């Protein structure tokens, strides 16, 4: 995603930690204005399907999921976990 936005992790972290959600969203849109709809869809789908990619990350994922709802073993993506944490699932 950072490559797609054309920024490094420090820049993104600074924006994410200092801006409101609305301001961050507007900034992301501005960073993507020269991208095609197909490119945007591809990145969104990649994010939506992203799962932990190492045993250590799976362990972290399971620990977080267990804190919120250990019965939700059907949840396997980072987006699912965020939705669970924020009460949307």
Structure, described:
- The chain is 67% helix and 0% strand.
- The protein folds into two domains: 1-49, no CATH class; 50-89, no CATH class.
- By secondary structure, it is mostly helical.
- The chain starts with a helix and ends with a helix.
Q: Which structural class best describes the helix and strand composition?
A: mainly alpha
- Tell me the domain tally: 2
Looking at the structure, what is the overall shape?
globular
- Name the helicity range: 55-70%
Task: Give the count of helical stretches.
Answer: 6
Identify low-pLDDT runs.
none
Helix/strand order, N-terminal first: HHHHHH
Radius of gyration: 15 Å
What is the rounded distance between the termini?
A: 24 Å
**Beta strands, count:** 0
Give the amount of beta strand, in percent: under 5%
List the helices and strands and how they pair.
Layout: H1 2-5, H2 9-18, H3 21-31, H4 37-49, H5 55-68, H6 78-85
